[in-house]
Amino acid sequence: MSNVEAAPQEVVCAEGPAAVELVEPRDVPLGGPRAMTVRRTLPRRKRSLIGAWCFVDHYGPDRVSATGGMQVPGHPHTGLQTVSWLFEGEIEHRDTTGAHAAVRPGELNLMTAGSGIAHSEFSTPGTDVLHGAQLWLALPRAHRQAAPAFEHYAPPQTGTRGAQLRVFLGSLGSETSPVATFSPLLGAEIVLDPGARLRLPVEESFEHGVLVDTGSVDVGGVTAGAGRLAYLPPGRSSVEAHADTSAGARLLLLGGEPLNERIVMWWNFIGSDHDEIAAYRRQWQDERSDPSRRDRRFGDFPEAWTATLPAPELPNARLIPRE
């Protein structure tokens, strides 16, 4: 997914205060008069990172016939990984590594941008309702120039005391994802029965976020409704979730060791400073204007592409770290 805001904010990510927080989403239209709107909880001024998780969009259930669904032409990324997770519907993915894949409910699609990649995402013609989450992971400085790659994994569903789990990154309970990551991480979908109480052992060194998809959940004394994100600081050996008694709940549990690095995130790029971001933007614009050039940071465009997204204008001032 692209961040298609006309004036994307520069975001410098660093550790936030060690306290339980409820992060409210802000609505962001994905472009056009019939735009599909996403609810964004990361990054926010109050909280920029949860481990290496640096971008959290939650969308749907969205009636594709009313909004047009997801229509995101080719666009670039650097210094991050995209994690696509659907609850309903289907999305067609193409990227400049040559990958052409379908994003389906309960299946992980992980794209590593590293030194540079471009991809497109379109909801498929047979999709009536689109519902899911688009997440980004910041690559640590040592791996920010990793080779672009794409990986797919369909985690098994396991059950425990009123809950069903799918672990797509890291380890939770007895389940471990085989997908390699560049920093210690956790990503899992959890479905709770009405009134169910769940206590899961987690890594104490991790900070965690609970993104509620449906229903309402009490997490560590904080009640989070659909679209909200509950943040839990490091130092907890377990995460407890209690679903509302009138309905079940579905949530994503995200976690990781604090990144302990300052990163600048602007539009679809992660870099270290203004000059690096400006260079990525310039290279993308050059490659859009001349697809035949050989020195291509973002790879060869798929033949199926008929359009690519232009980069927004940089702000008048230099991108500088902000607290």
Overall tally of structural domains:
2
User: Count of DSSP E strands?
Assistant: 27
Structural class call reads mainly beta
Task: Summarize the amount of helix as a percent range.
Answer: under 10%
- Helix tally? 2
Poorly predicted spans: 14-18
Output the radius of gyration: 19 Å
Domain Pirin C-terminal: 189-288
Organism: Streptomonospora salina
Keywords: Iron, Metal-binding
InterPro entries: Pirin, Pirin_C_dom, Pirin_N_dom, RmlC-like_jellyroll, RmlC_Cupin_sf
What does this structure look like?
The protein is mainly β and 323 residues long. It folds into two domains: 22-154 and 264-289, Jelly Rolls (Sandwich), CATH 2.60.120; 156-258, Jelly Rolls (Sandwich), CATH 2.60.120.10. The protein is built from two helices and 27 strands. It has helices at residues 64-67, 274-289, and strands at residues 11-13, 21-23, 26-29, 37-42, 53-63, 71-77, 80-88, 91-95, 100-103, 108-112, 117-123, 129-138, 149-153, 158-159, 163-169, 171-172, 175-176, 185-192, 197-201, 207-214, 216-219, 222-225, 229-232, 238-243, 249-256, 263-266, 269-271. The strands form six sheets. It has a seven-stranded antiparallel beta sheet, with no helix packed on it. A hairpin with a 3-residue loop joins strand 14 and strand 15 (163-169). The relative contact order is 0.19.
Question: In summary, what is this structure?
Answer:
By secondary structure, the protein is mainly beta. About 5% of the residues lie in helices and about 45% in strands.
